[in-house]
Amino acid sequence: MDNHRSQLWHSQEIAAAYQNLNSSQTGLSQTEAKKRLKALGYNELKQHPPKSLSALLKEQIWDPMIFILFAASVTSALLNEWVESVVIFLIIVVNALIGIIQEKKAQSSLDALKNIAAPQARVLRKHLQIIPARELVIGDIVELRQGDMVPADLRLIESANLQVQEAPLTGEAMAVDKKADMLLTQDSALADQINMAFASSTVTNGRAKGIVVASGMDTQVGKIARLLDNQDNIETPLKKKLNSVGKILTVIGLIVCFAILGIGIVYGRPILPQFLVAISLAISIIPEGLPASASIVMALSVKRMAKQNALIKKLPAVETLGNATVICSDKTGTLTQNKMTLTHLAVDHDFSRQTLQSIDKLKQNTASKELALAASLCNDASFDNQHEKIIGDPTEAALLSLTKQLKLDLAKLRKQYRRIGEKPFDSKRKLMTTVHQVNKQKVAYTKGALDELLSRCDKILIDNQEIELTADKKAQILALNELMANKALRVLGFAKRALSDYPKDYKLEQNLTFIGIVGLIDPPRLEAFDAVKTCQKAGIKTIMITGDHKLTAIAIAKKLHIFQDGDLAISGQELNKMTDLELDKAAKKITVFARVSPSDKLRIIESLKRSQEVVAMTGDGVNDSPALKAAHIGIAMGKNGTDVAKQASDMILLDDSFSTIVSAIKEGRRVYRNIQKIIHFLLVGNIAEILSLTIATIFNWDAPLLALHILWVNLATATLPALALGVDPATKNIMQFKPVKSGTLFEKDYVKQILSQGIFVAFLTLSAFGIGSMQNYATGQTMAFAVLALCQILRSFSLHSNVEAISKSSLLQNPWLIISSLISTIFMGIILFTLQLQTLFHLTSLSLFNWLTILALASFSMIHVELGKIQKRMRLKQKIVID
Question: Of the listed 218, 330, 600, 650, which one is catalytic?
Answer without folding.
Answer: 330
